[in-house]
Design a protein that fits this description.
single chain, alpha+beta, five-stranded antiparallel sheet, 5 strands, elongated
């Protein structure tokens, strides 16, 4: 076999590899969009039984979250968790520490916030905010959508290049 006889085979193999490579961002993006949709539905379902109340930030508690890779490493992250006080439907004054912490603090002492809680699980209350409820689903869907577009774009570009290529050697 002459080297020129192998060219169509190599070209087909390379073509299949490039088109397969373009599928990877599409597949990863689809998984991310699917996960984001799952998080959105999960959040929506969790909100159904919750009751809203008005609360007030009474303190910001600094907490260290340890993420150790090696032994004897110091904490890698310290964030402020708002401590919120509100009056539940049953008239009890409830104080809770929000699960989401930030640095700098999202809220100042005295800030009014909307609180969501389940009437039977009052201590599991949380601050109602877009960032706390919808941030991660939005990021997953957005990043996944960009990856899907990148994969589709790469595949379209590749197909366009293949269609406009001039065959050589009388093929």
């Amino acid at each position: 076999l002459a080297p020129t006889d192998l060219m169509p085979s190599i070209s087909r193999l390379l073509s299949a590899s490039i088109s397969s490579f373009a599928i990877i961002p599409f597949m990863v993006g689809s998984l991310a969009v699917g996960y984001g949709c799952h998080l959105t539905l999960q959040t929506h379902q969790q909100l159904q039984p919750l009751v809203a109340a008005n609360g007030r930030v009474v303190e910001n508690q600094l907490k260290s979250h340890r993420k150790r890779i090696r032994k004897n490493e110091s904490p890698s992250l310290s964030v402020y968790h708002p401590i919120v006080e509100f009056t539940a439907q049953n008239g009890k004054v409830i104080r809770f520490t929000d699960a989401v912490g930030t640095d700098p603090p999202d809220y100042q002492i005295g800030d009014r916030v909307s609180v969501l809680y389940h009437p039977q699980l009052i201590q599991n209350a949380q601050i109602q905010s877009w960032k706390r409820l919808w941030f991660f689903p939005t990021i997953a869907i957005g990043v996944g959508g960009i990856a899907i577009l990148a994969g589709v774009g790469a595949l379209c570009q590749y197909q366009h290049t293949q269609a406009t290529q001039v065959p050589s050697n009388g093929e």
